[in-house]
Amino acid sequence: MDETYIKVKGAWKYLYRAVDRHGKTVDFLLTAKRDVAAAKRFFDKAMGGNGDPNKVAMDKSGANKAAMDAINAGRAVPILVRRVKYLNNIVEQDHRAIKRVTKPMLNFKSFRAAGSVLAGIELIHMIRKGQFVFDGTEAMSIAYQFSTLAGMVRSA
């Protein structure tokens, strides 16, 4: 789990992202602030959609640690939190793909537009990593898979 910065209306916003040990994207969330409430919202969203992890690797961010402590306070079996700089390399390298696409954009004009565009970028990135495998995807281009998942293509 880690966060990266995205510029919206000239101000930096935070894109929280989680990746599993195999490099597959677990979840992502764009927030205006980098605080305990935002980190807890991200963890709740990620764990709600993907189940509870056994352990979480994160950087030395105090807000992220405080959020995990709050989550662990109400649990019988706590989630192990590993705060070692070099354990986070998988997600740091995964940020590159997002930054490569967003950097030429220079700036998003609204928070809502940034959220929508980043969701599409994450979806394309997940398709490239092979996270959406269903019957017939091997014969489809990435663009066609994206438009099918996004609901743009209607079957005749």
Please describe what this structure looks like:
- With 156 residues, the protein is α+β, with helices and mostly antiparallel strands.
- It has a single domain, classed as Nucleotidyltransferase, domain 5 (2-Layer Sandwich), CATH 3.30.420.
- The chain contains 5 helices and 5 strands.
- The chain has helices at 36-50, 62-73, 89-102, 111-128, 142-149; strands at 2-8, 11-19, 25-31, 55-57, 80-82.
- The strands form 2 sheets. It has a 3-stranded antiparallel sheet.
- The longest helix is centred in the last third of the chain and has 18 residues, at 111-128.
- The radius of gyration is 17 Å and the shape is globular.
- The protein starts with a strand and ends in a 7-residue tail after the last helix.
- The model has no long low-confidence stretch (mean pLDDT 84).
